[in-house]
Amino acid sequence: MNWKQINNSPVVGAIASIFFLVIGLGLYFVVNKIDSENSPDKIVKLSSPLTVGQVGILNGNKDKKHCIGIVVVAQTKEAFDEFSISSDESRIQELIRRGNVFSAPNCSKVRVIDTDSKLSLVRFLEPENENIIGGWVAYEFAVSN
Known about the structure:
- By secondary structure, this protein is an alpha+beta fold.
- The protein is built from 4 helices and 7 strands.
- A hairpin with a 3-residue loop joins strand 4 (about 110-115) and strand 5 (about 120-125).
- It starts with a helix and ends with a strand.
């Protein structure tokens, strides 16, 4: 048998058809899997920022399902602003040493007492430190849980 006879044989045609069918089905399932992962019932609901009086949690993570990490809390708006814009390491350490700025673990339970355009004043409902009642946090970090 020469090469032309092999290429024109029904066995080679059947094998090629099966090959393309398998590739086509594989692509079909890959595309459908991607579509199902993006379907509305699979999209994770983003936590919304809390308004005054609402109870929720502190969470600075992009994925609000995770509680790993901390959120910066300040005793005053001015301390928060100073901490946020300061590039002076000694000034940041001074704010922390004086207790003007501290950290709270993600998923700490809070109630929002006041808000402005960028900050929320929160009261801790389950404080880890009995001396700390609450403070100012970035508005988007006080969220519903």
